[in-house]
# Entry
Amino acid sequence: MNTKKIIDKIVKTSQGSIDDLVNILHSNCDAYLFKQADQVRKKYCGDEIHLRAIIEFSNHCRCSCSYCGINKQNTTLDRYRMPPEEIIDYAKKAYISGYKTMVLQSGEDPWYTTEKISYILQEIKKLGDIAITLSVGERDYDIYKQWKLDGADRFLIKHETADKALYNSLHPHSSFKNRIKCLKNLKELGYQIGSGFMIGLPGQTLETMAKDILLLKELDVDMAGMGPFISHPKTKLKNYPVGSSYLTLKALALTRILLKRPHLPTTTALEVTNIKDRENAFYTGANVIMRKVQPYKYRKLYEIYPNSTIHEKSIEEERKEVENYIKMIGRKVSITRGDSIEL
Ligand code: 5AD
# Structure
């Protein structure tokens, strides 16, 4: 079968084999793939783009992920923790500016006990009709259960790579098995779950990427984030080349045509490797964009991967800028919480 036919088959049946996916990733049939992904996005998600506020509230981390700039071995980094009241205060500012989803993300930092996170969730929920997405790493079932009761709606925890051996070598503190268990526990507890992976990790092949996309399908994710790997000078992988933003767009488009319903953000990592590609993602399947809202003094220190200089603007100014951009490209700014899309 030629590549166009395989693309048509996936659009129609929502089924594809590893070979089908590798064929598409390998081919130069990108214009056709992107066009189909854009149409599928329009059919299932409409023209609305969801804006999410993200508060990166702590860069302390107990993990040793080989690619991540805030891994615990990096002793040169100034570490910070936002006090709970400050997190709540910034969630309030973001809500007033129009955001209806707060993503609370941090390194795996046990300083934020189950109770502290519960308190933060309850206080943010009191502010109004806000969806809360937690992204704080691997925890036990009972802790996830408690946070769900306290008001957490969604959870982001990427599988990072579907290659088990590669996963285990990049994450010596944990295991692929536990990662997947966390995702399954969260789904069982009724969270809207988000996974995702990096493109261009050393050792990754097109076949691994095909398995990554099929794993998203198997997990039945509600959200999926894909971004190019960017080497960070303070990590073991510092000498490896950055991932391809072109391949990232193809992975995004493929995910859209195969899974249809997940919310797919255009990731910041995509902007770092190629500023145009963050915009292009909106034409290849993406329907979500996140904006950092924590104070700038912290943003500089949340350096998972090297990021360009930031021009300081207020939360309102930044929100207006993105809104204007969305309108300029002929799409709509969502005024809903942007919960899961059911087929
Ligand atoms: N390059 C690209 N993405 C990275 N992440 C972490 N480190 C890097 C890096 N060096 C991504 C991971 C993680 C998310 C918070 O950021 O996918 O889940």
Summary: Strands lie at 48-58, 101-106, 131-135, 154-156, 192-199, 223-228, 288-292, 332-333.
